[in-house]
Amino acid sequence: MSAEISIFGLFLEASVLVQLVMLTLLGLSVVSWAMIFQRSRIYQVAQTRLGKFEDKFWSGLDLNRLYQEVNSRSDVVGLEKIFQSGFKEFVKLRRVSQRDAGQALEGTRRAMRVALSREVDKLEVHLPFLATVGSTSPYIGLFGTVWGIMNAFIALGAVQQATLQMVAPGIAEALIATAMGLFAAIPAVIAYNRFSTRVEKLENAYINFADEFLSILQRQTVGDEAKES
């Protein structure tokens, strides 16, 4: 408790600029932790829904029935969104040009690519902010430290006899800014690296599914053409 009081006291005694630096770092830390918890929950949900949809897709369920089931919901995201966009485009193009299977498959590929890009963009929301906090917070804290130490030595030069007791509070309050900078930066850097890896894995899973789904549609198209001939 005394440590907290002394730190708070040093904050109150610091210069206005150093106080602003500390408050800025505190605000960045609070926002970063809020984003960390939010992103962590979103990635967990995305991974869970990906696994469930893959199990359902590879269970042998009819594609038309699966599409109707997905299309009946309003919270379609991730792999379900890619499947929905691709199958919808495939059915529409096959109705328009029944004899041009290549055009239908190419249109399906484009639709899934656009949907995949949008889903990845959703997953990457707030990651640039975490990267910015992780890279800039130490420098913001260092700026506050340099400013505080400079003021401490300027005040020290104004007296005839300098003692450690006189200069220690000024240096201590300056070093708190560096500590707060690291406190804001370290979790942000760890979270950014961890989340980037999770986004990359989810993106690879989306890409693999899109390729496999397109192969299934291609085989189905070839089979339909063989029956017609």
Describe, in plain words, how this protein is organized in 3D.
The chain has 229 residues and is mainly alpha-helical. It has one domain (18-228). 87% of the residues lie in helices and 0% in strands. Helix 1 crosses helix 7 and helix 6 (127-157) packs antiparallel against helix 7 (164-228).
First-residue to last-residue Cα separation? 85 Å
Question: Structural class of the helix and strand makeup?
Answer: mainly alpha
Query: What is the average of the pLDDT values?
Result: 85
Low-pLDDT ranges: 1-5
| Amount of helix | over 70%
SSE string, helices as H and strands as E: HHHHHHH
Radius of gyration, whole Å: 29 Å
Strand-residue proportion: under 5%
Largest sheet: none
Number of alpha- plus pi-helical segments: 7
Give the overall form: rod-shaped
Transmembrane segments: 16-37, 139-159, 171-192
Protein name: Tol-Pal system protein TolQ
Family: Belongs to the ExbB/TolQ family.
Membrane topology: Multi-pass membrane protein
How would the blueprint of this fold be written?
Blueprint lengths: L1 H12 L2 H42 L5 H9 L7 H18 L4 H23 L3 H31 L6 H65 L1
Keywords: Cell cycle, Cell division, Cell inner membrane, Cell membrane, Membrane, Transmembrane, Transmembrane helix
Protein name: Tol-Pal system protein TolQ
Pfam families: MotA_ExbB
